[in-house]
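Entry 14. Structure prediction run on the chain below.
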Amino acid sequence: MLKWLLAIVVLAMISGLGSSLSPRRWRIGYLPGDLHFHVFRRHIHIPLTSTLLMSLAVWLIVRSF
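Output returned:
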């Protein structure tokens, strides 16, 4: 259980930090369900859908082994 929680946290961090580095054609970090806010001149990005898709991908990869 702890292993999965750690994997999800790491993927969420990579998705949030790497969304500006990822190619725009993949649209990771800008999917429907990802939240974007502008509060006090700051941009807040919460990649919910991207995190779920990446978690599913990792789960499928781990399950195949």
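The two ends are 18 Å apart (CA to CA).
Filed with the rest of this week's runs.
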